[in-house]
Write a structure and sequence with these properties.
The structure is a homodimer of 223-residue chains. Chain A is an alpha/beta fold. Chain A has two domains: 122 residues, 3-Layer(aba) Sandwich (Rossmann fold), CATH 3.40.50.2300; 94 residues, Winged helix-like DNA-binding domain superfamily/Winged helix DNA-binding domain (Arc Repressor Mutant, subunit A). Chain A contains nine helices and eleven strands. Chain A has a five-stranded parallel sheet, sandwiched between helices. Chain A has a four-stranded antiparallel sheet with strand order 6-7-8-9, with helices on one face. In chain A, helix 7 crosses helix 9. At the A-B interface, helix 4 and helix 5 of A face helix 4 and helix 5 of B. The first copy, chain A, binds a DNA duplex (30 and 30 nucleotides) through helix 9.
DNA sequence: AGGAAACCTTAATATAAACTTACAGCTTGA
DNA sequence: TCAAGCTGTAAGTTTATATTAAGGTTTCCT
């Protein structure tokens, strides 16, 4: 499990990082606070530890930026502990709040509890997604329709998964592109179009037309 | 959402129950502490609030009993607050820990955060705005009226959203135009008129006339 | 009532977003 | 090392939708 640490106090950052590694977690520490989003997109961590007081923008700001694109579990750290701070943290999309100074044992226990809550269902979670007769096998990237099946490439699979996960909701092209190519922001806009076309072609070959709808100027939707 | 409260102090139990109900939660309060498992099985709550100090068996015991059969989210309450208590709570399968005495705001915030995390599908329940029978779906840009529906383009959607957000208030044409076209101040005044017309046409097709009223010289209003 | 803003209607036109098709660089594995 | 399939690029095309244009209403003030 990979944990991203956003904390400007070097002592705390190192201590937390070291302890987490001792516990077998992989850590990603933010050093340049202008690069938070890029680092997040690059590493796609399983959990984020976020200090509230940071240089320039604060932890709440970065939380809401991350929440625009991800539901990653997040624990706030802060030396203040009025009820308002706690309520604020939760309302911004945080999952827990720990007051500094804290015992590492407590942090570890809370991280474990939150990871268990977030990812445990994954084991029992069904290995397929279904919508309107199309079954997407998450294990091997196959799509089924009736008795016909087809294999998707990595990119096609990724696109279909994100669209099916958001069925009934318009997913913008930039959101898909960010999710596919992280911060390699030099990939052509058209690359997505081509991949969508390839995916659609396979769906049509299975006898499924109009599965992905284009919302011009807005994105794509499965409904 | 149904919340089970396991707390022997009558004052706290009632206060928590009352507040939760004020927030729209259904509550199940334990009165007979030999019946915890039966009540749990009967009601199948979405979340459990568990005091640690209870008559006969303590909260940890009941937590582990419940964990044998369910992954229901659980928040512990206790007046003690050594790191050990917190760590213990988490390790027993709890999701959070609140020290007594606590602010109800904090409890509510933690409950909401935990429910959000556990039943994340709640977030996918569609976000809408409603006024006078017209429902605007913010996630797929559709408008509904009774059983009829219509799809909006990006511009139409933007206009309707800004008008519904300001329902009962006159929104000036310049305000709408600035919001739509930012600083491209070279777009024709009439462009807005045409888009309003198209939007109205779709509303009429749904059987809704006079939804957007023109206030000559002032702007448009939905009332 | 008369006139002029302000706004509406309809239809033609322009445009940017998305699509199609073809191709070439890679990777992978036989 | 060569074939097969994946992936991104390029160039040209289509199309949904915004914009323009031109003439028609409504509203409101004197």
């Amino acid at each position: 499990m990979k944990i991203m640490i956003v904390e400007d106090d070097l002592t705390i950052r190192d201590m937390v990082g070291e302890t987490l590694e001792k516990w077998g977690f992989e850590t990603v520490k933010i050093e340049d606070f202008d690069q938070i989003m890029q680092v997040f997109l690059n590493h796609d961590p399983h959990l984020v530890i976020m200090d509230i007081n940071l240089p320039s923008f604060d932890g709440f700001y970065w939380c809401s930026k991350i929440r625009e694109i991800s539901k990653v579990p997040m624990i706030f750290l802060s030396s203040r502990d009025t009820p308002m701070d706690i309520v604020m943290s939760m309302n911004m999309g945080g999952d827990d709040y720990i007051q500094k100074p804290f015992h590492m044992d407590v942090l570890i226990a809370k991280i474990n509890a939150l990871l268990r809550r977030t990812y445990s269902y994954m084991e029992t979670q069904s290995q397929t997604m279904e919508h309107d007769g199309i079954i997407l096998n998450l294990e091997n990237g196959e799509i089924l329709h009736g008795d016909r099946k087809s294999e998707l490439t990595k990119t096609e699979f990724h696109i279909l998964k994100i669209l099916m996960k958001n069925k009934g909701i318009i997913v913008s092209r930039t959101k898909i592109m960010r999710s596919l190519w992280k911060n390699e922001n030099f990939v052509d806009e058209n690359t997505l179009t081509v991949n969508i076309a390839r995916l659609r072609k396979k769906l049509v070959e299975l006898g499924k037309e109009h599965f992905i709808t284009t919302k011009k100027g807005q994105g794509y939707i499965i409904q």
